[in-house]
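Ticket #4471: structure output looks truncated?

Reporter: J.K.
Steps to reproduce: submitted the chain below (144 residues) through the standard prediction queue, then opened the result file.
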Amino acid sequence: MSRVINLNNPTKIRNQNRRSIAEILRRLSQKPQMDAEAQDMAASLVFLLREIDAGVKQSVEAWEKRGYWMKAERFLRDWEWVAETAVNMEDVIRHEAWDLLPDLLGELFPRFADIQLKTMTRTADLWRGNYQRLLAEPPSELPW
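Returned output as attached by the reporter:
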């Protein structure tokens, strides 16, 4: 029997989500006001950050299972900002405190500065309807 190879490993998904976030940040920064599309984009950032956080936890579990405690701890520390940022953005969106969003986006920009965007490859299908989808969910809380 041959091995099953998962092509969608956490690193690949994390890199795809980082690219999507970088594109959304660029598009959001060009928006003059918060319209329905901008709200959908902001909600998409929450979903993408959550997915990154889930992938980080999956990687950490795999490394801990193999006994790479130091590597897992360092990796977890490097990515601990993701869950907090997702919850903060969700809070801003749920309370419609759109005046706080630029500060949160400003904190995100340096974390995605290493991603080169020559062309925008993500379509509006990525974020369309995510604002309503987020509001339909129960509110998230930080795990600590």
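Triage note (M.O.): checked the attachment and the full token line is present. The mean pLDDT is 88.
Status: closed, working as intended.
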